[in-house]
Amino acid sequence: MEIATFVEKAARRGIRFEIEGIDLAILTDTLLTPSQIRTIEAREPELIAWIKAQESLIAPQDSIPKCEFIFSRVLEEEVALARDNANLELDEYGLYKGRVVYRDSEMRRLMAQSPSPEHLRSVHAVKKEFGGEIEGEGIR
Length: 140
Fold this sequence. Notes:
The protein is an alpha+beta fold and 140 residues long. The chain has helices spanning 3-12, 34-56, 104-112, 117-130; strands at residues 15-20, 23-28, 67-72, 77-82, 95-96, 99-103, 134-135, 138-139. Helix content is 40%, strand content 25%.
């Protein structure tokens, strides 16, 4: 099974992976079975390489402007992509110039979850309605 498929299946079971320093971190709300632990351990180098590749898709902070607008085909609207440290003047609904804002750290969290289009749309709907930032699997 390809590593992207493995990560997607794990995410559907509530298992997420991140890099902490040089180590693989396994994030889950449930106990892993011995079989799951052995499988993850066997695929750890692949998982680390995949996560690093996903993170490299997001440009370094100093190479992008503080905020850009892009049109999302999945969301069927324009969104604002912003640096974590960008000081944006958000309106009372948490929007910037009428657009939902996604910070770099939020994009990394979303990418790590390998979300389906439906999941992206549901996260976006919550952000649009209530504002906030994505933290872990939820919105803060």
